[in-house]
């Protein structure tokens, strides 16, 4: 249970010594209750109080890292149920499931698919983050073989080792010792031995409740595993149908955040695999919007990845701050003093679409990107941030007049209405209205060349 | 520690709204919980997916989504019947895009004729949409509402600039009304209040908080829908308890991801599958955020969404 400020206060030294930087112990306690301060600031807190408070002040969903090095991904740490309340913190991990019934060639092909899944979108590199090894054969040898191929050919890709077989878990975990894999498959029968393996190889343990046991069984299991000294877990309630995934994920996140119910305060793993690929994509979309931290997929076609990456990006953006780029004059290609100058706003999406199309036009250009607090062209215009006088001022102060000989500014077609007033405010300049949609830019630039 | 499911009960409930007539009448809304949260309340009705058709051939739609309708789209009646009889559409959304002054600029009378022909040829519910030109829509939707009198359609979209005439036409001809505002919960609430202040029944409004496509502002629509639903349920705000509509197809089938040929963007994969997926993923996000009615275009995207709804109900 989350402690109130007063409950926390009772555990503090009550000397008001101010060493924590707050005027009183009570003030400090209030900050702790709001998770706006760390207990470490008080040097005099007793060991007993530290333990009690540490439990209570830990983030409601435990932070866990999957993998190590550059491709490591963080999960958990979420603090809200709805994205309009506060940014969702750690985007969910996409994992491609690879069955151990496949041949080595097929396995290598899948590894390549994961490696080649990187897509640039709005300035972010998006990719399939992990591989889930699936023990479909039931044979420990086959599973071990799959783990071996992966650890040799793709040591950098984080893995989720999915097996309930102890010897399969042991051999594969050994290959990934200290590389922070998830060993998924601790259930009510094998959790003691599985915990030992996870402990030995410092892995995160994936806890699987049976589909009938659900959240009750899951909570009991995580508590038992925790008593065995395992802190890092990811959890699966056994939900496979969309309806249950929504129900269980919602109840887990609520229990963790609103009730600070520790036994369910772990990242959730969701198995979205379906025969029907489009349906699988939609189940994955449900996982993205509704609290899954790992989503296991059966295939990763490019069209599917692009849609899922984009949804993940949308859901995990900060609702208060639109994604934006720096205000400056960007060079596209190698522009000269004769090259055209275009202007747009600094909303990331706008910038990347427009710069992409200018690039497509193969005409070296200057793109003036003006700070409009991350708003799109029309939104910024409607909000009074992309106005003639602000544009004029920006162009003058940007120093671009020193880099080009001409005095022509190309503006977005949607704000054609601004052309006259910009000319009034930017003496000696000519304003040209570009196309409305950015995809018209290449044709527009070509027609100007003639 | 025993696990006690932290269930939520809300004081509010979404209004049940029926559209269409006779055996094919359909009811949406009625739930007292967030979307598909049947584990803690009642969700009496499925969300409704309407197939979008238009009064003029959809030559401006990308090829992938024109193709399924190529044999029928020359005529809105054959298009509507194809959706109803072959694709098993549960509802039709007829967009009178040809009335837009920058398009074919068809007259209100012509539009009314099309509406009459379509409504007479189908027995499933009909949604009638203008061209989103606020002035022209006033006259077009009045004529369209008369032409479909007493068929219990949904007409729209009424916006701040034209709601009075359109709402009056909806009342006079027994239709439901779409109230559309621009991605802002306060604007949406305000428009609902303005409309009800005219004496319009608040339980006959459908909220369109403005849709947006995956990758192109989806997160804004998503959060506005969630906030509207929470205001209706948790705060029991009677001006925010109407079913929500998402005009998905129109926003999706104009973004680059649904159009660009694979040859030009090899990293994005197959064009057709990409487009269908784009529409389906946008649609499911809207349903999860709170929408009860969606307007969609590609039959395969609709089919997938119906399957997903089956799994969620
Ligand atoms: C998402 C959105 C918002 C978000 C903001 C998102 C953001 N970061 O900008 C929010 C919800 C905050 C918002 C708020 C408002 N919005 Co708003 N919003 C939209 C929406 C749905 C999408 C905007 C978007 O992301 N477009 C995508 C980007 C990439 O487009 P873009 O920047 O215009 O770039 C394109 C072109 O302009 C062109 N281009 C860009 N740069 C250049 C440069 C050159 C040289 C060339 C040639 C071309 C070019 O290429 C791009 C792609 O084709 C639009 C409606 C729509 N579907 O367009 C309304 C829209 C822009 N909003 C509108 C309005 C009125 C507002 C508000 C004033 C009202 C309100 N709801 O409160 C506020 C103002 C904001 C404020 N006061 O802070 C109106 C503007 C009306 C008008 N014509 O003036 C629109 C058009 C809605 C409508 N009426 O249909 N909005
Ligand atoms: S440092 Fe500790 S004892 Fe001193 S005022 Fe702060 S909380 Fe109280």
Structure notes:
The complex is a heterodimer of chains A (450) and B (313). Chain A is 39% helix and 16% strand. Chain A is built from 16 helices and 17 strands. Chain A is globular. Chain B has one domain: Dihydropteroate synthase-like (TIM Barrel, Alpha-Beta Barrel). Chain B has helices at 63-66, 76-86, 108-121, 134-147, 163-172, 185-197, 218-233, 248-252, 256-259, 271-289, 299-312; strands at 16-19, 26-29, 48-54, 92-95, 126-129, 154-158, 176-180, 205-208, 245-246, 293-296. In chain B, helix 4 (134-147) links the parallel strand 5 (126-129) and strand 6 (154-158). Classes of the chains: A alpha/beta (450), B alpha/beta (313). At the A-B interface, helix 8, helix 9, helix 10 and helix 11 of A face helix 7, helix 10 and helix 11 of B. Bound molecules: cobalamin (B12) and iron/sulfur cluster. Cobalamin (B12) sits between chains A (322, 342, 344, 347, 349-350, 353-354, 374-379, 381-383, 410-414, 434-435, 437-438, 441) and B (182-184, 187, 212, 216-217, 220).
Secondary structure: elements and pairs:
The complex is a heterodimer of chains A (450) and B (313).
Chain A: H1 5-11, H2 25-33, H3 47-57, E1 64-66, E2 73-75, E3 93-99, H4 104-115, E4 119-121, E5 124-126, E6 130-134, H5 140-153, E7 159-162, H6 166-175, E8 182-186, H7 191-200, E9 204-208, H8 214-227, E10 233-236, H9 242-258, E11 269-271, H10 277-289, E12 294-297, H11 302-315, E13 328-332, E14 341-345, H12 348-360, E15 365-370, H13 377-382, H14 388-398, E16 408-411, H15 419-425, E17 430-433, H16 441-449
Parallel strand pairs in A: 3-6, 3-12, 6-7, 7-8, 8-9, 9-10, 11-12, 14-15, 14-16, 16-17
Antiparallel strand pairs in A: 1-2, 4-5, 13-15
Helix pairs in contact in A: 1-2, 4-5, 5-6, 6-7, 10-11, 14-15
Chain B: E1 16-19, E2 26-29, E3 48-54, H1 63-66, H2 76-86, E4 92-95, H3 108-121, E5 126-129, H4 134-147, E6 154-158, H5 163-172, E7 176-180, H6 185-197, E8 205-208, H7 218-233, E9 245-246, H8 248-252, H9 256-259, H10 271-289, E10 293-296, H11 299-312
Parallel strand pairs in B: 3-4, 3-10, 4-5, 5-6, 6-7, 7-8, 9-10
Antiparallel strand pairs in B: 1-2
Helix pairs in contact in B: 2-3, 3-4, 4-5, 7-10, 10-11
Bound molecules: cobalamin and iron/sulfur cluster.
């Amino acid at each position: 249970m989350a402690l109130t400020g007063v409950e926390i206060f009772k555990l503090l030294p009550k000397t008001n010594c101010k060493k924590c930087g707050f005027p009183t112990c009570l003030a400090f306690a209030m900050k702790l209750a709001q998770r706006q301060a760390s207990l470490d600031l008080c040097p005099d807190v007793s060991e007993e109080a530290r333990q009690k408070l540490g439990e209570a002040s830990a983030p409601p969903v435990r932070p866990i890292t999957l993998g190590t090095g550059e491709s490591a991904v963080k999960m958990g740490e979420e603090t809200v149920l709805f994205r309009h309340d506060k940014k969702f913190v750690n985007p969910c991990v996409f994992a491609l499931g690879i069955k151990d019934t496949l041949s080595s060639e097929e396995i290598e092909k899948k590894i390549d698919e994961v490696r080649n899944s990187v897509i640039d979108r709005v300035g972010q590199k998006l990719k399939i983050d992990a591989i889930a090894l699936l023990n479909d054969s039931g044979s420990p040898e086959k599973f071990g073989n799959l783990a071996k191929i992966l650890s040799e050919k793709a040591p950098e890709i984080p893995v989720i080792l999915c097996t309930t077989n102890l010897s399969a878990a042991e051999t594969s975990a050994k290959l990934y010792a200290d590389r922070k894999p998830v060993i998924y498959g601790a259930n009510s029968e094998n959790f003691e031995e599985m915990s030992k393996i996870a402990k030995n190889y410092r892995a995160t343990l994936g806890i699987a409740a049976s589909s009938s046991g659900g959240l009750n069984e899951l909570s009991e299991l995580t508590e038992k595993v925790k008593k065995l000294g395992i802190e890092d877990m990811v959890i699966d309630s056994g939900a496979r149908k969309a309806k249950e995934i929504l129900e269980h994920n919602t109840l887990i996140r609520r229990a963790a955040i609103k009730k600070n119910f520790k036994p369910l305060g772990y990242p959730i793993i969701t198995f979205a695999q379906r025969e029907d690929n489009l349906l699988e994509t939609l189940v994955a979309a449900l996982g993205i919007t509704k609290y899954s931290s790992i989503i296991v997929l059966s295939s990763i076609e490019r069209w599917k990845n692009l849609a899922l990456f984009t949804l993940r990006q949308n859901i995990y953006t900060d609702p208060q701050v639109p994604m934006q780029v720096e205000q400056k004059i960007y060079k596209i290609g190698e522009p000269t003093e004769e090259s055209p100058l275009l202007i747009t706003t600094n909303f990331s999406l706008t910038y990347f679409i427009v710069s992409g199309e200018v690039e497509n036009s193969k005409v070296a250009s200057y793109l003036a990107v003006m700070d409009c607090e991350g708003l799109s062209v029309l939104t910024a215009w409607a909000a009074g941030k992309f106005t003639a006088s602000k544009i004029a001022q920006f162009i003058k102060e940007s120093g671009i007049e020193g880099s080009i000989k001409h005095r022509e500014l190309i503006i977005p077609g949607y704000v054609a209405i601004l052309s006259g007033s910009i000319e009034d405010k930017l003496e000696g300049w000519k304003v040209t209205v570009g196309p409305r949609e950015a995809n018209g830019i290449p044709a527009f630039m070509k027609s100007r060349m003639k | 520690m025993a696990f006690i499911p932290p269930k939520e009960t809300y004081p509010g409930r979404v209004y049940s709204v029926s559209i269409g007539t006779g055996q094919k009448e359909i009811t949406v809304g009625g739930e007292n919980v967030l979307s598909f949260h049947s584990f803690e309340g009642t969700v009496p009705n499925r969300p409704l997916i309407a197939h979008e058709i238009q009064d003029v051939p959809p030559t401006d739609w990308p090829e992938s989504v024109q193709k399924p309708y190529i044999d029928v789209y020359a005529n809105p009646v054959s298009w509507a019947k194809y959706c109803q009889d072959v694709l098993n559409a549960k509802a039709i959304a007829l967009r009178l895009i040809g009335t837009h002054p920058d398009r074919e600029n068809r007259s209100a009378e012509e539009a009314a004729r099309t509406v009459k022909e379509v409504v007479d040829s189908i027995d499933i519910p009909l949604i009638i949409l203008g061209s989103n030109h606020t002035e022209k829509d006033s006259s077009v939707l009045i004529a369209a509402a008369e032409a479909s009198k007493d068929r219990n359609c949904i007409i729209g979209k009424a916006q701040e600039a034209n709601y009075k005439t359109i709402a009056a036409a909806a009342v006079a001809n027994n239709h439901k009304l779409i109230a559309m505002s621009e991605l802002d919960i306060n604007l949406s609430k305000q428009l609902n209040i303005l409309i009800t202040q005219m004496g319009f029944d608040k339980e006959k409004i459908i909220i369109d908080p403005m849709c947006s496509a995956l990758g192109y502002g989806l997160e804004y629509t998503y959060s506005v829908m969630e906030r509207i639903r929470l205001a209706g349920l948790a705060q029991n705000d009677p001006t925010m308890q109407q079913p929500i509509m998402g005009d998905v197809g129109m926003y999706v089938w104009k973004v680059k991801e649904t159009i660009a040929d694979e040859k030009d963007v090899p990293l994005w994969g197959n064009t057709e599958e990409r487009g269908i997926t784009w529409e389906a993923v946008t649609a499911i996000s809207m349903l999860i955020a709170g929408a009860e009615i969606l307007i969609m275009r590609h039959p395969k995207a609709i089919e997938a969404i119906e399957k997903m709804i089956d799994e969620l109900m």
